[in-house]
Every structure is written in structure tokens, then in C-alpha cells.
Amino acid sequence: MPELRALLSDAGFEDVRTYVASGNVVLTSGLSADKLGAKSEKLIAERFGFDVDVIVRTADELADVVRLNPLEGVVDNPKRYQVSFCDGEPDPKAVEKAAAAAAPSERLVAVGRELYAWHPDGVGRSKMWTKLAGSGLGVRATARNWTTVTTLLEMASES
Question: What is the pTM of this model?
Fold first, then answer.
């Protein structure tokens, strides 16, 4: 993560901060979300030699995700509550297919470019999770647990 921070700082981004070792970055940029994502993907590929999908949300968009929290009354463990951030709205049929694979205790709510998924028994054996984590949604996506989502919002609010 220190190398990622340095790479992005050297590229002209400001206030670059990372959270845990899974590529979570908060930074300041004058670029649009699309341009920021594309530039970040290119920099990472050139420097580290692998392709990653970079999904960008502004601080206001992230605040909306947290404020909405459609499963607030259901979730009792933030580490088992996942938000998938997609680069576009997922195919409704793919979302229905994922929801149909859910165990009786699981929940899935799709709102725009985000999918909120509750996995009370964890994601390891979740058939729904396998549908959300694959390429079957028709969009690029990355998921973070609720603890990470709210921490990233706190970091973004400090900028």
C-alpha cells in the first residue's frame, strides 16, 4: 500500500490515503470519476504489472450509499454486510438470479449501481455471493464490507 500511495501521489493526486491492504484508496482529484478510474488502472498496470478494475465513488456518492443503508434493520454484523460497487447498473435479470440463489437468511437489495448483500453465515458458503462475485452481473464490480465502507466515508469526509 505504501507503493500504491506513492504511485498515485507522484501522478499528481492529492491527499492520497489507503485503508487496509486491499486497494482501498481515498484521494483528491479534479478528474471525473471515469477519467480517474481509467488513469488509476493504467498507472497500476504499468507500475505493478497487473490489471485491476478501479471503481470510483465521490465522497457525496459514498455518503449516499451509507445514508441509504436499506438493510439497516436486518444486519447485526457489519463484517458480513457487503456493498458491491458497480461501474454501471447491473442487469436486473442477473440481480434476480443472484437473489434466487440466496439462502433463506440472506438478503439482497439493488439500488442503482450498488448491491447491498447480507450474509449472516458468511460469504464462504454463500451461493448468492458466487453470483455477485463473478462476471455474471454484466458490469465490473468490487465489494467491501460495511465496516470498510463506513471507514472510507470517514476518511473521505476528512479531506
Answer: 0.94
Q: What is the mean pLDDT of each run of 10 residues along the chain (159 residues)?
A: 91 93 89 94 94 94 97 96 96 95 97 97 92 87 95 90
Q: Which domain holds residue 73?
A: 59-158
Do 44 and 113 reside in the same domain of the chain?
no
pLDDT at 159: 63
List the one residue out of 77, 70, 72, 82 whose CA is nearest residue 129.
82
Side-chain-side CA neighbours of residue 105 (13 Å): 11
- Please write the tens of the pLDDT for every residue from 85-99: 999 999 999 999 999
Residue type, 113: R
Say yes or no: 72 and 27 in one domain.
no
